[in-house]
# Entry
Amino acid sequence: MAATPEAPTKTPWHLWVVGVLTLVWNAVGAFDFVMTQTQNEAYMKAFTPEQLEYFYSFPSWVVLCWGIATWGALIGSMLLLLRNRLAHPVFLVSFLAMVITTIHNFVLSDGLQVMGGIGVVIFSAVIFVVALLLVIYAKAMRRRGVLK
# Structure
């Protein structure tokens, strides 16, 4: 007996909402990375000299992890919109790179002191939660057969 082909899984409406919103969100992160790494004067003038020194003194491995985190998240959002199953592992690698960067910024260096206060902690927590939720969401969409 011949196997019947599976009906294609319908793309839920929320995938488009999550995909587009996180594409914009992650594009801002990628933009920030590029402006910081190119030391764009107009962009960087918002920071104090101490903060600039802090950013520009990151070791290469931190810059690499930061780049993987930001660009991986942007690529993950694109893959999500393309309904590609690679969205989940890309978001996961991005998340892990972000965790490493965060450990450097808040544990191994004086990033909290240099960047100043609770606002940085709250914003970093929001970024962390969004990244984790994207890993979970992409995994769920892959399991449901939405991502191929």
